[in-house]
Write a structure and sequence with these properties.
six-stranded mixed beta sheet, three-stranded antiparallel beta sheet, 9 strands, about 10% strand, alpha/beta, elongated, about 525 residues
Length: about 525
């Protein structure tokens, strides 16, 4: 259903761009026809020895070319601006649709694959509506206009030149399939290279500590070798296309000269008409070539459009919303990688109370929290947040209604102050105030890039964001990781002060005696633990 929505939006946004391209083409058609007449006049008057008429016609051609240059320059600026704004608006529109995907789908995306689809494929699709479709209209109009003009001059010459121009359909038809295949293969391997590079960045310390540099480098070299192989195939395809076009250009040039020359020499056409036909033939052939070249562009854009649409949600944006924050799990069975983590699990959590979840590593604590947050999907059983499946929650629930803080904090290349403003807007002062409770004498936490902060400083930034958001449901996964004792004490105070409660996964006993409930996850089941006040 998104296909028609996207096409309708893009067509509307690039309508002005298409009109400008068509207008530019119409001007160019008129200029080319006028120049062919002036060029014919120069040759004929030169043969008669009429110098004054030659100079006049040459000056006219120069004037037309100057006007054309000024027109193309100003029109090109307007066209570039309109197209850039249209592309930006369409990309923002696509992002809005893209982020309507349920959280579980967004969390499962590969960084490299998503990047390639959104960037390259999006540009290919928008180019189809911004230039390929308008280009098809303009080249068609050009072919019709030049053919009509030639028909007025001489029907036989017009027919022969049009027939000769069809030779240009051979290269794009022959090459089309290989271009499409290479496009798909290039996008796939580029995605794998990007994913592997991102993984190397995230696991740099592990690679260094365990001496895996050679393994990582060899694997990356293997990907690049495969990419080079695909690239060579693309080069061969492009070269073959270029050679075919070069051959056809020679056939067109000499075939035109010879054919028109024979018409003139045999008295079948006048010299004036012959010169006009030769002068205009290049424009006619270029227009016909452009129409056939669009064949391969459309083939590539169709592939890109299909890949891009695969990234959009299958249904309209979910509209489920969290109210009071009740969490009810019934009959939940969930497994991963052939291992069952939960079997027929029943659990009810009051998110307005302070709840602690404990258990051994690998027991499923984080998985349970991700299931509740909607970051993972489930097939058997039910999870309901105020009666709504978490995978059906609309995007506006995050982070104001539901805030989930994973163990590993995100690393951004902007400051904490900028992060707070982007998420909280004018209420960012709340988060800044909480940061100062964590670090009273360190304003650099707010002013430094998050990527440059230590693990403990990053944790303080994201904990401050969590409490400043004041969500209905707050879920914190190992929030004391990297925190010093002073930071743990501040976190303890913030949790006890908070009226809305929280769900906290921790190995740390810093909340013992303060929390309302304790649950222990072990061997696929959940039981009440000690340490809660209830």
């Amino acid at each position: 259903m998104y296909l028609s929505t996207i096409r309708r939006y893009i067509r509307k946004r690039f309508r002005k761009t298409g009109v400008l391209r068509c207008f530019n083409s119409s001007f160019g058609i008129a200029v080319n026809i006028l120049n062919s007449a002036l060029f014919s006049r120069i040759v004929i008057e030169a043969a008669k020895g009429n110098v004054k008429s030659v100079v006049t016609s040459a000056a006219a051609i120069l004037s037309v070319k100057l006007i054309e240059f000024v027109f193309n320059l100003s029109a090109g600026i307007a066209l570039g601006k309109t197209e850039s704004l249209g592309t930006h608006d369409c990309k923002m529109f696509f992002y809005r649709l893209f982020f309507d995907k349920p959280l579980k789908d967004l969390c499962s995306l590969g960084a490299g694959e998503t990047k390639e689809k959104i960037n390259d494929d999006f540009n290919t699709v928008t180019r189809k509506y911004a230039s390929v479709y308008p280009g098809f209209v303009t080249v068609t109009a050009s072919v019709v206009a030049y053919t009509a003009y030639l028909l007025i001059l001489d029907r036989r010459i017009a027919f022969v030149l049009l027939l000769i121009s069809l030779i240009q359909m051979i290269p794009p038809v022959v090459i089309k399939k290989y271009l499409q295949v290479n496009y798909e293969r290039c996008r796939r391997i580029e995605a794998r290279i990007t994913d592997f590079t991102v993984e190397g960045y995230r696991g740099f310390m592990t690679i260094k500590l365990y001496g895996l540099k050679k393994w990582w480098r060899d694997r990356l070299a293997g990907y690049h070798k495969e990419y080079s192989k695909i690239g060579r195939a693309s080069i061969y395809t492009g070269t073959a296309e270029g050679v075919l076009f070069e051959i056809t250009d020679k056939v067109l040039t000499y075939g035109t000269y010879g054919t028109v020359g024979l018409f003139v020499l045999n008295g079948l056409s006048s010299l004036d008409i012959g010169i006009r036909a030769i002068a205009l033939s290049g424009s006619l052939f270029g227009a016909v070539k452009g129409s056939f070249s669009i064949i391969k562009d459309l083939a590539v854009s169709r592939t890109a459009e299909k890949r891009l649409l695969d990234e959009l949600p299958d249904t309209v944006s979910p509209d489920g919303r969290i109210g009071k924050g009740s969490i009810v799990i019934s009959g939940l069975t969930y497994g991963h990688g052939g291992r069952t983590l939960f079997s027929d699990l029943d659990l009810s959590i009051d998110s307005t109370k302070l709840t602690v979840i404990k258990g051994p590593n690998g027991g499923g604590k984080t998985t349970l929290m991700r299931l509740i947050a909607g970051a993972l999907g489930h097939e058997t059983g039910e999870i309901k947040l105020d009666g709504v499946d978490p995978t059906s929650l609309s995007g506006d629930n995050y982070p104001g209604k539901l805030f989930y803080l994973p163990q590993d904090d995100a690393v951004f290349d902007f400051t904490a102050d900028e992060l707070f403003y982007m998420i909280l807007g004018d209420k960012k002062d709340r988060a800044e105030g909480i940061v100062r409770r964590f670090a009273p004498d360190d304003d650099q936490i707010l002013l430094s890039k998050i990527s440059e902060l230590s693990g403990g400083e990053r944790k303080k930034v994201f904990l401050s964001l969590a409490f400043a958001s004041d969500p209905v449901i707050m879920m914190l996964d190992e929030p004391t990781n990297s925190l010093d004792e002073a930071g743990k004490e501040t976190l303890r105070k913030l949790l006890t002060e908070r009226e809305g409660g929280a769900i906290v996964i921790t190995h740390d006993g810093f909340l013992d005696g303060l929390c309302d409930s304790v649950y222990v996850i072990e061997s696929g089941s959940v039981r009440r633990g000690e340490g809660g006040t209830e």
